[in-house]
Amino acid sequence: MLVVDIREKVREFKAERMLTRDNVPVTIDAILRYKVIEDRAKDAILNVENFNDMIQQVSQTTLRNNIGSALFQEILSKRVDINNLIKSVIAEEAKNWGIEVTGVEIRQVIIPQELENAMSMQAQAEREKNARVIFGESEIQVATRFVEAAKIYENNPVAYALRQSNMLYESMKIQGNTIILIPSENLSSMGFGNLGMSIAYLESIKKIIAKESDSKEKAAANVTEKELK
Asked: I need a labelling partner for 149 at 20 to 30 A (CA). Which of 37, 83, 141, 200 fits?
């Protein structure tokens, strides 16, 4: 009396160092899921010597044929389609032995290390190119805004002087006690043509900065007192 296991089985199979259609060497690991159809168990015994070995050999051959006819990028991006194609070919063969193929899955695609490094460099170069393109586009947008601002300042000297004054204030606030040399032409354009007015302007900026610093210190001291309480 022969006993046939009709439970679903899993077999591993692979294609080693196969060349794709675009001559990329790859090693493919895959698994096959199948089971004997209960009312056709006799076919699995009589129509083939060893259905487990036979279906594994067919699986390897089918995998090799499909990898050799596919492009490398297709193997990576269309893995589901390749799985279904391999499954349909194996199922067509296996139905003569009373076997149902329930699934085929490519688990891993292995390529040589030197090729993997080259692909990594290519991807990095592509990212750098995209970053440079984005940076260039942003520079164009900034330059366009500067041109628009220049037209506004050209027709409004007061706005231009205020902008210069604000830039000077921000520079002194960041630099702190650092001495900043300002050309006399710039001071004249801001309305501070003589030395007295320039000194008065600079002193007023220093007072504003000192006042802001004191306010921040007091706020920090109040927070500390509250925490201690």
From this structure: 200
C-beta of residue 28 within 8 angstroms of C-beta of residue 108: yes
CB 27 within 8 A of CB 15: yes
Q: Provide the CA 61 distance to its chain's centre, in angstroms.
A: 36
What is the C-alpha separation between 65 and 86, in angstroms, rounded?
9
The CATH number of domain 9-111, selected from 3.30.479.30, 3.30.360.10, 1.10.10.10, 1.10.3720.10:
3.30.479.30
Distance CA 4, CA 42 (A): 9
Residue pLDDT, tens place only, 70-95 = 888 888 888 888 899 989 999 988 88
Domain boundaries, the chain: 9-111, 112-155, 157-213
pTM of structure: 0.53
User: For residue 189, which of 181, 178, 198 has the smallest C-alpha distance?
Assistant: 198
